[in-house]
Amino acid sequence: MPPPQRPQVDPRDAGLLADVSAGNVRLSSEQALQLYHEMPLAELGYWADARCRTLHGEHIRTYVIDRNINYTNVCTAKCTFCAFRRDAGDAEAYTLTNAEIIAKVNELQSIGGSQILMQGGMNPDLPLSWYQTLLCELGEACPDVHVHAFSPPEIVEFVHFFDPPGGDFRAKVRWVLERLQAAGLKSIPGGGGEIFASAVRRKIGLGKCSADIWLTVMHVAHELGMNTSATMMFGHIEGIADRIHHMDLVRKWQDKSLSDFERDGGGRYMAFISWPFQRENTPLGRLPDWDDEGDFPGDVVAQLDGNGEKSADTDFGRRLRLAGASAYLRTQAISRLMLDNIYSIGASWVTMGPHVGQLALSFGANDMGSVMMEENVVSAAGTTYCLSEPVLCHLIRDAGFTPAQRDNTYDLLTVHDSDLSPDLQVDDWSEFREAKLHVQGECSDEPVPVTVGQAD
Ligand code: SF4
After folding, report:
1. Which of 12, 107, 251, 432 has the most CB atoms around its CB within 10 Å?
2. pTM to 2 decimals?
3. Contacts of 283 (CB under 8 A, 6+ apart)
């Protein structure tokens, strides 16, 4: 049963927040919104950190080594925040072969990686058999690698492209997912979550599925025993209430999955990861910045129930309010306090940089995300921060924790509590500095063996 709410209590009340931190009380959406606007940042971090320590203990904070493989950039959708997609026939359009994908996975395994995050554009030229063959060949070539792949918008397009049998949309999704699961798919990433409120979603996610469909796909995955992630991309045209509504929907659907399937071994949302929109090279990024005068149009439109109407402000969708470090940390802290039924909160590295990511460990994040070998989608929008595994471990240790490599289910693979830890093996950090670890807009392949990027 979800914890009870005390909606009449001022959310800044220390007694209430102590109960929220202990997992005994659930914040209401109204309380979360009030906290976002009124609580000093450091205090918000204190309570999010307290909740994180209740769930994850005092000592260990994790990361995963995986590889983000974008198998095709051909996409029929035209999301306004995307700089990655290409039309079929474009000079830069590509679809990787199975051999190329397996070669990438072999490279990942050679550095101790445990999973791949595989996502692509919505490419109508790829039949179901292409995905089944790929998954089977991957399973034969790399049986120990966890395949975390195909976000809900891709699954929705599979339903459109493959025309599976089934009396309704849910049955069709189930038919597709059962076949992908049988071929080797293990879990589903949370891509395409963006912002659930329909007024925002219609403006920024052209061609992408509605919130209800996104959440239904994940519910079917949970029914089939697969774990998933949930994500949120914020800091564009949305209001703060839209972010809270987004978290509330994730929380409600997690309750539903746990209630419906937990006793039968069903899956669940294991993690929530949120990151600020990156504007470079994207149509959405060409909108003018909000001048900070008066109310932000997104806030005028946004409603906690997700039913905001764009007609509430004629400038809605015409101004950007990008999120900086404090808005990012504030949003992440609220997510840790709101999402009492989600195990992990991941820090965002690609967009925020290593030092804000490190700070995120004091604002509710227990996981530093992914030490990845490549990242294409976010880096196409301009910002990519590159870190090696030793530097990542160093940042976690420097934040006061013991770094540990985890797998997809958040089981610990290696706890770096000895002198053999990757960061404690480094005598000369200058080579890492020379590798330009904090480069914006490019990831150096040399000499650091792996880079940190956005995983979901
Ligand atoms: S974000 Fe994904 S679905 Fe949207 S246009 Fe880009 S590749 Fe296509």
Report:
1. 251
2. 0.91
3. 80, 81
Nearest 5°: phi and psi at 155?
-60, -40
Which CATH topology does 14-453 take?
TIM Barrel (3.20.20)
Compute, in angstroms, the gap from residue 122 CA to the centroid of ligand 1: 7
76 Rama class: left (phi>0) / alpha (psi -120 to 50) / beta = alpha
H/E stretch holding 418 reads none
What are the tens digits of pLDDT across the range 347-393?
A: 987 778 888 999 999 999 999 988 755 555 545 554 445 677 888 89
Strands 344-346 and 115-119: unpaired
CA distances from 71 to 102, 159, 193, 201 (A): 11, 19, 20, 25
Ligand 1 closest atom vs CA 154: 3
Q: What is the pLDDT of residues 129-151, one digit of tens each?
A: 999 999 999 999 999 999 999 99
CB 173 within 8 A of CB 159: yes
- Amino acid (one-letter) located at 113: G
Q: What is the spatial distance between Cα 19 and Cα 24, in angstroms, rounded to a whole number? A: 5
User: ∠ CA 402-406-411 to the nearest 5 degrees?
Assistant: 105
